[in-house]
Amino acid sequence: MRKLGVWAMLFVFILGTACGTKAEKSIVTNENIDSKNISDEERMQWWEEARFGMFIHWGIYTVPAGFYKGKEISNSAEWIMNKGQIPIVEYEKFADEFNPTKFNAKEFVSLAKEAGMKYMVITAKHHDGFSMFDSKATDYNIVDATPFKRDVLKELAKECQAQGIKFGFYYSQAQDWHHPGGLGNTWDKDLKRVSSDAYVYEKALPEVKQLLTEYGPIAIFWWDTPREMTKSVVDSLHHITTALQPRIITNDRLGDDYPGDHKTFERNGPRHQPEAKYWELCQPVSGSWGYRSDDNKFKSIPTLIHNLIDQSSKGGNYLLNVSPTSEGILKPEAVERMKAIGAWMSKNSEAIYGTQASPTSTEPDWGRITMKTVDDKGLLYLHVYNWEDGASLPIRLKNSVESCYLLTDKNRTFKTETVDDGIQVKLTGEAPDSIASVIVLKLKEKPNALPVKPLGQDEAGVAVLSAFRAQYENLQGPGALYKEEWDCISNWDSETARVYWSFQIDKPGSFNGILGYSAAEDSEISITFNGETKTVKIPKTGSNPKRFKTTDLSNFKVEKAGKYQFSIMPVAGKWNAINLKDVTLKPNKN
Q: Using CA atoms, how far apart are residues 383 and 371, in angstroms rounded to an integer?
């Protein structure tokens, strides 16, 4: 196919949409006719209030379900083609066996609604290249290539509209292990390569257009794994998405220069409130994103409810993934957990929906705090995990209390006391909920948090940026986790993750950067600080991960006081896993 310019491509695609059927036109224009000038705040309002959604990874990889030729293949199920080095002609055979006759869209959406979820995102096409809808760009799809012959995405889209759940698509825009121009397939020698631009124009762009014009109002487009693609094709995907559905919300994984509407955290949420206004944690309910027959690593019900509360307490959303089988149903363990979350939400959803982050910057050891502002007064929700009769809950706020009561029983009140360190709430009796009991603390004014010393320099001018205080960006997979027992970012193997600190410098000058870490192999990192970017080699420390050493990073000069950011990025292709303990900026002696 001849390459066209971005705007020419958009003209062709949008013109094609305008010339489609009346049904196709009404699906888009009825929802978006007055949306061209909508503000970001208005567009993001429902998403920010929702706090909780369902992610669904589903595809023909559920047929092998983690095993190929009798051997267990590592990683999540949807990566089996890649990790098992399965040739395309062999992998295509799984489509012949994919027949999810037990799938029921109404039951699926009803379960999400029962769990308290407000939106749903499903894999329209994952990296394996198989389209889970009636794609017009390829016959390699659920309608043409399987005995099932049904468009599950259309069924879910209609049912979500019927039940009032926002609906969206996951789409792997860069990786496609089936198309000769898609990125990621390095093992199939029979693949006759074409450019990635050709792949986008022949498959990705037409499929994105179809998903945005034939499936009703689409609330979310969830891109995945940005890779090296030409700017023109990434621009074309970005522009057609917002042109066809102006109200749509996108994440930050289209490309490095496309921040989207919200930041994405994968598998593990941030330890501290992110600086981004909008962000989301996506996490599987078990170990794998897609269904594996041997995956029994289901998170406990208390863990899942605490994760939902934790993200809300930091001002973020929780996108919890489920994995349908090749029959189209969920394992009983997943259903049990959805219903249990729903039972808790049926009593306590007021403390989740529409809430803001905790006004205090420290996490209490007894639980978490969410809040709302009503009539210029703070309404705090104290999610108590560790309830002890007679114990006091310290709240680091300098405020007057109007009332304090149990969310599920306003007649059950609690005494409060104002002390130098804030407010004390006195617990009495047994815990109303074994997982998380919610107390409402109504203030007489807006929350006034007691000051906390910001991350910065000590009296000697030394700034220690610890792993505990680090923030993350574009973390894909489990490869950059804070490990409490070692006080480090453990097994950081993700090349896409950026680890950074925002901190205060009050005593400017010349500094030597020192990295505290352990590593089995040599690596290279890219450091960005105070407008400078430097590449630094990190020598291996040995096979013992607990044996931390230090290495000099570089010298940096800061001429004036202020807030700064220190950022570390792996150098792609030259990166091996490390355990990062801290970065120290030590003043150089004159």
A: 11
Q: What is the mean pLDDT of residues 340-349?
A: 98
Closest residue by Cα to residue 563 from 477, 472, 520, 501: 501
- Residue indicated by tokens 């019900």: 301
pLDDT in tens, 376-401: 999 999 999 999 999 999 999 999 99
**Please, which residues bridge with residue 528 across strands?**
533, 567
Domain at 367-443, CATH from 2.40.160, 1.10.40, 2.60.40, 1.10.3470: 2.60.40
Q: For residue 351, what are its two tokens?
A: 């403390």
Contacts of 565 (CB under 8 A, 6+ apart): 500, 501, 502, 503, 528, 529
Structure tokens belonging to residue 455: 């991350």
CATH class of 6-30+39-350: alpha beta
Question: Model pTM?
Answer: 0.89
Q: How confident is the model at residue 226 (pLDDT cuts 50, 70, 90)?
A: confident
Quote the CA–CA distance of 514 and 555 in Å, as a whole number. Answer: 9
With CA atoms as reference, report the closest residue to 559 among 513, 508, 511, 512: 508
* CATH number for the segment(s) 463-587: 2.60.120.260
